[in-house]
């Protein structure tokens, strides 16, 4: 499809396990963003990638969170030793370039539930 | 850090009534974007405002950007049940530094429309 694709759509795991979330941006989009959205809350910025530049990791809440992106393709967000407070929807977005004046196109998100 | 405050958090209206949500920043914005998130869905880009005092309309929706580029509003005339969802503003601050290219989202206004 032409949109941002995220997988899995739902993930249920036990506390303490590691999880890996995947985002496939729109082809040709050089900027990719990860957000966390808790139930009924706003979007919490986590990290963004722009081409081959160093990512802006300023929103990562702890060192248990990390993300990678190879070039302008797929990105993975990894959460190690998950905690119950990590339960949320993790949204990925991409934009054509990262100048702050381009619309962000969002995927459907991964709903993460930590038991 | 740079924040965008959005009010109200919730708004309940009867179908046919008007609705307005407001965003404010203590720092001048380069531009502001508005997104709509339907229940269970992901944020979808509505519009971007760039110029001081800019006003844009989309059918029953009117978007304004303040003269000082520190505030913005979204007004819906004669709401319909299809307007239900969460409306987010997202601001981009001046280019440069680590904030370049990053959008800062407001907390959103959850709109409920009673038929």
Describe the structure.
The complex is a heterodimer of chains A (115) and B (115). Chain A is mainly β and 115 residues long. Chain A is built from no helices and 10 strands. In chain A, strands 2, 4, 5, 8, 9 and 10 form a 6-stranded mixed beta sheet that branches. Chain A is globular and about 35 Å long. Chain A starts with a strand and ends with a strand. The model of chain A has no long low-confidence stretch (mean pLDDT 92). Chain B is mostly beta strands and 115 residues long. In chain B, 0% of the residues lie in helices and 56% in strands. Chain B contains no helices and 11 strands. Chain B has strands spanning 4-7, 10-14, 19-25, 29-37, 44-49, 55-58, 61-65, 71-76, 85-93, 103-105, 109-114. The radius of gyration of chain B is 14 Å and the shape is globular. The N and C termini of chain B lie far apart (41 Å). The interface between A and B is medium-sized, with 26 and 28 residues.
Structural class of chain A: mainly beta
Number of helices of chain B: 0
Radius of gyration of chain B: 14 Å
- The outline of chain A comes out as globular
Through-space gap between termini of chain A: 33 Å
Principal-axes shape call of chain B: globular
Share of helix among residues of chain B? under 10%
Summed up:
Chain A is an all-beta fold. Helices cover 0% and strands 45% of the residues of chain A. Chain A is globular, with a radius of gyration of 13 Å.
What's the structural blueprint in terms of helices and strands?
The complex is a heterodimer of chains A (115) and B (115).
Chain A lengths: L4 E3 L2 E4 L5 E6 L6 E7 L6 E7 L14 E5 L5 E5 L8 E8 L9 E2 L3 E5 L1
Chain B lengths: L3 E4 L2 E5 L4 E7 L3 E9 L6 E6 L5 E4 L2 E5 L5 E6 L8 E9 L9 E3 L3 E6 L1
Parallel strand pairs in B: 2-11
Antiparallel strand pairs in B: 1-3, 3-8, 4-5, 4-9, 6-7, 7-8, 9-10, 9-11
